[in-house]
Structure formats: C-alpha cells, structure tokens
Amino acid sequence: MKSIRARVVLLAFVLGSLGIPALGEGILVLNEQCNKSAAFFPAALDALGLAYTEVNDEYDFFLALTGGGSWDLVIVDEYSSRLYDDTLDAIAAYIVAGGRVYMNYWEWDKAIAAAFEAEVGDHYFDPIPIYVWEAAHPLLTTPNAVGALNPTTNTCDSDGAYFRAMGNGVEIAGYSPESATLQAAIVVGNDGRTVLFGGILGLFSGDENGDGRADGLEFAENVVAFLLGTPIVRPRPSLWSAVSTADLDRLLSEMEITFERTATPDGRPVWSFELGGVLATLFAYDLSGEGYTSLQFYTTWELPAQGAVPAVNSWNLTHRGSRAYVNRDGEIALDADLYLAGGVNWRAVRAFIARFEQTITEFRRHLGR
To answer: In order of start, what are the domains of the chain with their CATH numbers?
Structure first.
C-alpha cells in the first residue's frame, strides 16, 4: 500500500501536468455546513460578481478537483463531514502543484495542516474569539477592514484547532491577544497561495465594525481577493435593498463630499458633512443581514421657535419629500427619509443626497435665511 506521502507526490505530478497555476475554470467551493451555520463564501462570491462552482458533497468535490480541469481558486468550507484521506491527499497535491486553496475544517490532522505550512495542536469544542496579529496584512484590509472576530453561534460539537506556522508560513491572527506559540488561528502559507483558517468561518456572523455586513462575509471576500491576487471592487447591485457603511462611504467619496463618520450610542453609523451651506447629518436605520434598509437626512437651524410655526406649517403644506418641525431643543429641524426595502438603484440614493441639498437651499429661502 502506498504511503500518504507517495500518493500526494503522484497526485501532484498529475495535477501539475494540468497547469494548475494558470487561471482556469473559475472557483471551486466545497460548502458543507452544520446545523445552519452560515455559508459565507457563496454570498461573498456573489457580492464580488465572480463565477464559481459550488458542491455540497465530498465525492463531487473530489471529482471536480481531480477530474482533469484547472481552477483559479479552491475553497474548502467543511463543517459537516470528516474528509476521506483521498480527498485530503488531493487537496495537498493540488497545493504542491501550485494551486491556490483556502480551508477551514473541524478535524485537522498533521498531514493536511503541513500542506498549508502549519503544525496543528489541540482541537477545541467551543468557538473561540480570534485576535488580529498582523493588522496591515491584505487578508485583513482588502477590500474590507477586518478586526477581531468574535463567534456568535455554536452549531456543532467540534469547532477548530490551534496552530503554529511552519516553513515560510505566516501567522496573521490567533486565539491570544498577542502572538504566542501554538495559538495561531489564521496562517498564510506557500508564498501566499494558501490560507488556513483554524476555526469555522460560518460561526462568525457578528458585525464588530458596525458597517451592516457580517464579519465572516467580509473576511470571505478578503480571502478571495488575496488568493486570486487581483484587485477586486465589489460591483454595484442593480438594486439596493440595503446599504452598508462601506457602500455609503464609497458613494459620498464619488460625489466628492468630505464627510466625518461617527456612530450613535447603539452603534449605527452617522455621516456629517456640509450640504447647502449648513451641516447636514445622514443617519442609517433598520439593520438587516445585508445592511441598513432606510436612511434619514437631518439638519437644524438655531432659530427661536416663536414665530417659526407658521413658516414651518406653510412649508409642509406646499412641499413634498421632506418634513419641517420645531424639535425638542426649540430649533427648526428639516429631515427627509429614503426607504430601500423593495429595492432602489444606486442612482436613486445619489439623487436623494443631491435632492436634500436642493431642499436645504429652498428651505433657507423659505425662512428668509
């Protein structure tokens, strides 16, 4: 019987003859979750506008990986089944042949960890937070800024393992706040062609940076961008039913609006910038799984309430699309809302911003300001 090493070398020879390093047929994804853990890679690839082949069965994955084609990237998101030795050997051989691979798995062994230039330590059975060790690494910055990852659910019994980098592997993040031996959680290996994720990505559905998108989804997008080695700009959807913090940052920048972004006490993003000669504030509301589903502009004038009510009432009687009133602080306030549920295109969001600038100008004229 051949040894595992011999089988890997033989498979590597076969796969290498297929020209694996060259860009080929797209992206192959093995997606097997456990008890409804999140499947972030299909969603990430859809968001990035990239074609991929998704399989949900190990045997189909093995056939796709070894069946004679070439892939730009192979993603193994396995949280359900124990992979057979032949499948693990094929993944290792694909790496030896020059392939690009991401993998998270609940049952790492020494041989497959070594293929990713890592040594596996103990396994763990409850999800563990992951801390950033190399904050400037592109895996944590492009196209999304990803910080510490905190698990939000625990859907199965075994949830990952501890690692340390071997050979030329680089430890990017770990289970301790500072770098420590056999505490690595994310290892980049094989000259940047492989990413080992020591936990289960589908358990990280939180939104630590408050941008309206799951941390696991943003990390999945970064993995794809990093391993493909090409700049990726998330395409605009034809319709927006929700917007993220990054979406609005990008849109305001495209409109050449200089803004300051802060947050409300409950973590919702707030943008402040000059519009129509006054300071305007843009609030995001109604967080969903994809982002915020409504926006509100708000601005005020420090005018005495006395005598202002008739002007406010006449504005509301004669103008649509905005609302004027005297707020609790005795100021005149003007606001306008945009609801995205059901879908609007990005031009409508842009027009909403431009229209409120015009509304401010008209309202100031209405007040004699």
So the answer is: 4-228 (3.40.50), 245-367 (3.30.1460.70)
